[in-house]
Amino acid sequence: MNLFFCGGIAKSGTTLLQRILNLHNDITCESEDDLNFLLGEFIKVHKLYNSRIKKIGERIGLKEVKTVSSNVYFNALIKIINGIAEERSGDKKFVGISDNSFLLENFNILNNHFINSKSIIIFRNPIDRAISLWNHNHRLYKKENEYGHIKVLEIDGKLDLDKFVIYKSNLWNTQVKKIFEKIKKKDENLLFITYELLCTKKSDVVKKIFDFIGCKYDNSTINNILENTTLENFKAKSSYPEFYDKGSLNFGENFLNSETIKKSIELSRESLDLLNIKIPDKFK
Questions:
Q1: Burial (Cβ within 10 Å: 0-12, 13-18, ≥19) of residue 208
Q2: Taking the domain 2-283, which CATH number applies?
């Protein structure tokens, strides 16, 4: 089984990446997982189990009870991830697990535990990404009527798009730098791509992704993927077409005032440069 992981910071084109991969006949890459949820549950069980065995030991008069280390649970989680991949593999040569937070926080650990596995991380400029997140959460609130979707957008207890974008741009810069700091040397099993290039040079980037995975393709394969990963196609085939926004790439132009855009760029410029994301000339 050829295993790979893919994902990125939410609203960075992770769904588009997953859909592209899953369209190849030799690849299975199901809808996004939530491995951080599993990790959190394992941590809870670990604490509860150690608490229980301590209590049992106290009942029978043991002065000291040897607790179970967290390594036992983490190794079990790794086995579950492997089991998920094996269950989904079927007759496919390549298996992808699409995840966001867990991948970003643990891609080095995943590479160490899944020998020869590869990771693809997608990034998007922080301004359009923040706007997409803002719109997405408002749609979820309208659909599910849960104020929690709106609550996470508040800055200092208020809904303010400009402040939200500025805050998220600063946070994005920190997140990206942390990811780069984890990479001490060039990692041949790690590929960075940007949403900007995936949209503007989709054919070239898709070929780069398949070459990285080691998956064969021809013009027919690429053309089929290009035809089936348009915004219109996603909306037409989805039971929730509102999920798919326009996927803008213009750094919030015509949506935010120029002062907000320039301030957000300044706060994130270091990571924009790291990722070679081109800043529009008017905002440089």
A1: middle
A2: 3.40.50.300
* Rounded Cα distance, 32 and 79, in Å: 18
Q: Which of 71, 89, 123, 76 is nearest to 277 (CA)?
A: 123
Give Cα 270 distance to the centre of its chain. Answer: 21
Instruction: Look at residue 231 and tell me whether its pLDDT is greater than 90.
Output: no
Question: pLDDT tens digit string along 163-185?
Answer: 999 999 999 999 999 999 888 66
Alpha carbon distance 274, 254 (integer Å) = 26
pTM of the predicted structure, to 2 decimals: 0.91
- Note the pLDDT of residue 63: 83
Tell me what pLDDT residue 243 has: 66
Q: Any idea where the domains of the chain sit in the sequence?
A: 2-283
Q: Are the C-beta atoms of residues 169 and 251 closer than 8 Å to each other?
A: no
Inform me whether the pLDDT recorded for 94 exceeds 80.
yes
